[in-house]
Amino acid sequence: MRMIRRLSRAATAGLVAAAALTAAAHSAEAADTLGSAAAGQGRYFGTAVAASHLGEADYAATLDREFSSVTPENEMKWDATEPSRGTFTFTSADRIVDHAQSQGMDVRGHTLVWHSQLPSWVGSLGASDLRTAMNNHINGLMGHYKGEIHSWDVVNEAFQDGGSGARRSSPFQDKLGDGFIEEAFRTARAADPAAKLCYNDYNTDGVNAKSNAVYTMVKDFKSRGVPIDCVGFQSHFNPNSPVPSDYRQNLQRFADLGVDVQITELDIEGSGSAQAANYTKVVEACLAVDRCTGLTVWGITDKYSWRSSGTPLLFDGNYTEKPAYDAVLAALGGSGDPGDPGDPGDPGDGTVSCTATYTRTADWNSGYNGQVTITAGGEPISSWTATVTLPAQQTVSSLWNGTPTRSGNVLTVRPSWNGTLAAGASTSFGFTVTKNGSDAAPTVGGCTAS
């Protein structure tokens, strides 16, 4: 099956190249999604994908519309692909790769050698057997997907956190020593010479002891001809671990070593304008570094994120675009604002649209009432959706004239009885908020209509 696909991809390579040139030439017209906007900047915009969710219509539709690259979330890890020594299984990973290729997306391979998610048999091997098993695993996995993966995370998270810059204890480090990383990269180059080979890690986003240790390794590899092409920065951020002030400078110093840099697992806990501003910082940093080739967010929707309590992604649990989505699209130079001339939803263009505006209708020491007014655009609508992001301290005690669902401090509100509106007509929903010490106004996201 994979050989047939490789031949098919080779046969259509000219068409793909022509399409890419056309897309670049018309990026100002077409950049209304994350993938198309990033392509206009010469970069990819990807997401982590779970095979088990591909059957969900909204999940697949959002993936197909917005992203140009996918990373299997768990399906290419060692426990998923070689649960028994020498016996490989690729069913779930193939499902992701097949879906991505059917949509013209690239695929990142994640990951070949990692201390976690190892089947138990790996840890029981002696040094000689472990070396053989590591190389066989690299060859087996990369051989299966040869020519189909644009970048591989060859070695993942091999350095300790903290101030020492030391290597992490693992079966590979403990039994094979420092040389296992170099050996893995050399084996990977031979297995698929066309793939980009990356080292990937977390808490290396700013200049610190851990990133310095990775930097020293990459510099050494480049000086000795060890085949490393890129460094991945996972970039998992939250209020206690914010985007570093030297984030761009750190990316640049790695790029100056002669490797590409990629944002590989981006997510940022938070909501509203603060989350949006942090996403903007990351995107702008990547765009400022010529060798930053792309960004991958670690998931599509908050409801499936590994950090679901922190609502860290660009789409909420109902696949509604969050303010962070709008900020990322704008930072990439996209034209997704429905008020832009020529965009879907402009009055008179035959598509439905709506706007949402917020007012505070009552106020007292411990709380307030808010109201969101929904106004149809130039065409009638049969339903609408709006998001309300509350400051972290505040809670909603009641809501009327709408049907809410909650993801963290984000409310997604749909009609209760008032979904149908004539062109230009309005309706509203209201809510009561307990301040809990914060008098800040909520943020109302964009309105979507059908």
Strand order of the largest sheet: 1-2-3-4-5-6-8-9
Helix content: 25-40%
How far do the termini sit from each other? 40 Å
Largest sheet: 8 strands, parallel, barrel
- Please state the overall shape, judged from the principal axes of the Cα atoms: elongated
What's the helix count?
A: 15
Strand content: 15-25%
Supply the helix-strand structural class: alpha/beta
Kindly report the average pLDDT value: 88
Low-confidence stretches: 7-30, 337-350
Please tell me how large the radius of gyration is: 24 Å
Give a count of the beta strands, DSSP E runs of length 2 or more.
Answer: 18
Fold and architecture overview:
- This protein is an alpha/beta fold and 450 residues long.
- The chain is built from 15 helices and 18 strands.
- The strands form 3 sheets. Strands 1-2-3-4-5-6-8-9 form an 8-stranded parallel beta barrel, surrounded by 6 helices. Strands 12, 14, 15, 17 and 18 form a 5-stranded antiparallel β-sheet that branches.
- A hairpin with a 2-residue loop joins strand 14 (403-407) and strand 15 (410-414).
Keywords:
single chain, 450 residues, alpha/beta, 8-stranded parallel barrel, 5-stranded antiparallel sheet, 15 helices, 34% helix, 24% strand
Short description, anyone?
The chain contains 15 helices and 18 strands. It has 450 residues and is of the alpha/beta class. The chain has an 8-stranded parallel beta barrel, surrounded by 6 helices. Strands 12, 14, 15, 17 and 18 form a 5-stranded antiparallel sheet that branches. It has a 4-stranded antiparallel sheet with strand order 10-11-16-13, with no helix packed on it.
